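Consider today's protein:

***
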Amino acid sequence: MYQFVSPKKVYYGEGSLSRLQDVLQELKVHRVFVVADPALKDLQVIDPIIHILEGEGVEVTISTDVVPEPSLNVGNQMVEQARESQAELVVGVGGGSALDLAKAAAVFIDNKGGVEDFLNLSGQQKFESRGVPKVLIPTTSGTGAEVTDISVFSLEDTKDVMTHPYLLADYAIIDPVMTYTLPPNVTASSGMDALTHAIEAYTSKHATPLTDSLALEAIGRISRNIRSAVWNDRDYKAREQMALGSMQAGLSFYNAGVAGVHALAYPLGGLHKVPHGESNAVLLPFVYDSIFPACLDKMAGIGKALGVPVEGKTNRQVAQSVVRYLLELVEDVGLPTTLSVYDIEEKDMERLVDNGLQQTRLLKRSPKPLSETAVRQIYFNALRGELTHS
């Protein structure tokens, strides 16, 4: 027995941004709080959104106080701005950080306390109100934040999350046009983030037939298109497919969960400020090099979705080929394949291990339990760029 959860409405496709007008007419709101990445305002990417909002006669308050990997302080500042706006609707536009801040803003408008009071690892409070409705509009193809109920925040040496059904979007609008101007490095890191979501969801201990179907579709779609999306800025079809694949991966991992890659990536972001997509990408091959013996059938399925040759090979051989493929893919899209690129050294390993092991919410979904010894080996392998079993 299982359940599947998603936003109330998901709009996808070129031109779907226009559905924001339908949302406004449905909700009949008068005050809207917009959370947007600052670059989107500078590049006038959010102008069509503001035009739709003002065209419906609503009062618009815009905050561009969004930073990558937002801290608790940034989160609380955004919450205060949202409360002061007295908004009846929150619209989030941008990458994962902007969407996560928009979720928090919408819920905290009608709840007391600060972000720190509701964190997974240390928070003690529970939300009493749903807050106000929220519309989430991604401008990257990677985080899946528009279809999840998770808000991620950076702490001093790791990350923690708020997760609650009230944080789930009421409306998600995925218009690929919003991603067409992304630079190669953002396309690569967000794309590898989405691929990691799909792969971890597929091998999660909480996977279901429905999440599996979405994950496999996403794995194939992303792997076929990510190279061209990164390096050919005129291949809009590839970017359209990346947007769809990212959404599929987001729906899959929201319901099945992610595991070891994300658990060990969080300390990289907290301690060393490695961007989230890159931290997932650099660890992905090394985590699966460690855990593949526990999910050989699933690794064979991933191999087929990736287009890895499987005929005449055992599932173990396919799994090893998948790990090598993932390492080559990270390199192909121009992302680092070792932790040493981020000035991480052997002396940093024990602190990474300690912080990674604290992410029990994620680690418990791994198909193979990750012991302290296994986590340490993964970090060391990623530091040196060496695979143990593949």
About this structure: The mean pLDDT is 96. The first strand starts at residue 9 and ends at 12. Strands lie at 9-12, 31-36, 59-63, 89-94, 134-138, 150-154, 159-163, 171-174.
